[in-house]
Amino acid sequence: MEALDHKCPSCGAKITFHPKEQKWVCDYCGSKFTLEEMQKYQNASSENVNQKKASKKEVKVEEADVYRCKSCGAEIVADPNTTATFCVYCGNTAILKERIQNSRVPDLIIPFQKVKEDAVKAFEGVVKHKPLVPKAFKRKENINKITGIYIPFWAYDFDVSGTACFNAKDVHSWSDTSFHYTKTDTFMTEVEGHMHYDKVLADGSSRFPDALMDSLEPFQYKDLVTYNHAFLSGFLAEKFDVGEDSAIERAKERTMNTSVSLLQEEVRHQTSMLASNKLTVNKVDSDYIMLPVFMVNIKYRDKMYTFAMNGQTGKIVGDLPLGRKEVILWTLLVLVLSSLVFILLFIGGII
Fold first, then answer.
1. Disulfide check for 76: which of 35, 67, 158, 322 has CB 3.0–4.6 Å away?
2. Partner residues linked to 290 by β-bridges
3. pLDDT tens digit sequence for 240-252
4. What are the residue ranges of helices labelled H in 60-183?
5. What is the C-alpha to C-alpha distance for residues 29 and 235, in angstroms, rounded to an integer?
6. Domain residue spans of the chain
7. How many CB atoms lie under 10 A from the CB of residue 119?
8. How far is CA 225 from CA 20, 110, 176, in A?
9. pTM value?
């Protein structure tokens, strides 16, 4: 598959990808095109950007813009028509626009299914009924900074085989007219298993806590398609800074923990605890994929708080702080109301 241009086949104006319609839409002439139609109109560059079958090493990609933040050093890749006015990581507005030509191209991508309005509405819904959240999280100018960005992930296929031993117990209690009895039976149980996992994720970005990225899962792999740079139209995309060989250890750890849990479920006793593990995790294949996320970082008291939404499923994650002023005001309000209630009850002779 070749890399699509970002121009309308009908009129030559800028064309962007619309998640709701899953089509490229020209805002100038109103034309709409599917990926197949864009290719049919030969609206493609002469450069093949998907060399997965030939090689998974670095391959050349068509020119794109990279936005480098002076404050935190983040590098965001975008199509030539995208204008970035602030850093999605630290909120800094002083960023530099550069050009990149060589980088490893992703193998697969899940296009955005949600639009920015969905993310804004979700964030407003989260903070709406939380009076103790600082006002900074309710300001329109901060909420409107929510940005759609493709996050780099490594997806591994694993085969797992071997055995795990568990210390298990069964406890039975009964009573008679004189005594209460407890019988404890202990067992050493060995369980053998052979398992296969498809696309175990490990994020390729060091800028996000792993727990936050894990919380955005699951992604629905039915929407995975071959990567094409045109899907970035109207969005940003981060460059990975955690390599495939580095990220695999965390993916293996996740796979091992899941495998042990699955084998533990086969232990037919009341309680069990892992005693030894002789499982091996072997990589079968891997893909470099881009996954859609809406995110905004808001700074409060010298700390960044991240709100993120899965751009495919709409799942939202994030942590919200308690505002010092809001806590003080609500505490005073509760004290005042409690005092008034006490006074009224006292005057009424109830207490």
1. 67
2. 109, 152
3. 889 999 999 999 9
4. 116-128, 140-143
5. 21
6. 1-47, 49-168+188-320, 323-351
7. 25
8. 16, 6, 67
9. 0.77
